[in-house]
Amino acid sequence: MPGPTPDAPQDARPTLEAVAARAGVSRATASRVVNGSTGVRKPLADRVREAVEELGYIPNQAARTLVTRRNGAVAVIIDEPEARIFSDPFFSQQIRGISRELSAHDAQLVLLLVEGSGDFERVTRYLAGGHVDGALAFSLHTDDELPSVIRRFRVPTVYGGRPGRPGAASELAVPYVDCDNRGGAREAVRHLVSLGRRNIAHIAGPRDQTSALDRIDGYTDVLPDGDPALIADGDFTTEGGARAMARLLERRPDLDAVFAANDLMASGALRVLREQGRRVPHDVALVGFDDLESVAEATDPPLTTVRQDVEGMGRLMVRLLMERLNDGRTGTDSVITPTELIRRASA
What we know:
Blueprint: H1 16-23, H2 27-34, H3 42-55, H4 61-68, E1 73-78, H5 82-85, H6 89-104, E2 108-113, H7 117-128, E3 134-138, H8 146-152, E4 157-160, E5 176-177, H9 181-194, E6 200-204, H10 210-222, E7 231-233, H11 238-251, E8 257-260, H12 263-275, E9 285-290, H13 293-296, E10 304-307, H14 310-327, H15 338-346
Parallel strand pairs: 1-2, 1-3, 3-4, 4-5, 6-7, 6-8, 8-9, 9-10
């Protein structure tokens, strides 16, 4: 009696040649369609796409990179400690917007965190190796070395937040996406003034970040003769806001309003005010910045805050980067004005 018949070999992975044969076109034509090139007549392109779907063909990424000179990956670089990135909902919202828009462009997100010198060296090597098509960098600090690395290796880049100090030439050399931090801060303080508040304090963010500096400027635009004792530095965290609030109450127990530079610091301030018997908003009015739902709606009472579209800004960063990649430009050779950013965001 004959033994069992050996299992038939599994079908080999479909090849581009098989796709071309199924579609009845040349390999070169099939390659152009698969790699997204133009110049192939629609009936032929449709036949190639049908063959790809029928055969379950998956392009070889290494071979595709040789043809398109694209890796299909974008680095998202955040210069903050890991603990903060995964605890601050601002970052999760911005990354969500970035991820969704990259998916729409069939690109992968590569998250690179920079917390110390070792991380900086690793990220530098990675960017120098050409593993990504471009980069999105945000939460940078004024003494950050990353922009110089990006320029050195000519990595097409879009920044989240205005780079450099106010008035610095560097802010005109690279594309970036940001909200009107100064204008938003002015509106927050004007709102508190309209409520009849007179001793309005400000909990500022880190002064090595332009968003914090712009919000301080917005506060002082409305209160140019304010008491410096009414400004306390925080660090954009809940605990930082709580510590700053405690210092403010020690210095100026008569304060009747607070503008915090972000929602997390506002939530920390609210906790300290409650612990010290101050009613919000009756005794002390409080305004934050960001309008992060997970923070603003979780406080009691719900937080009054300045809204910025954090997820939308992440999406816009990707769109701008993809435009630059498709135009073949690096991240440092043109200027995109705030007016142009607004036009593209509303398009």
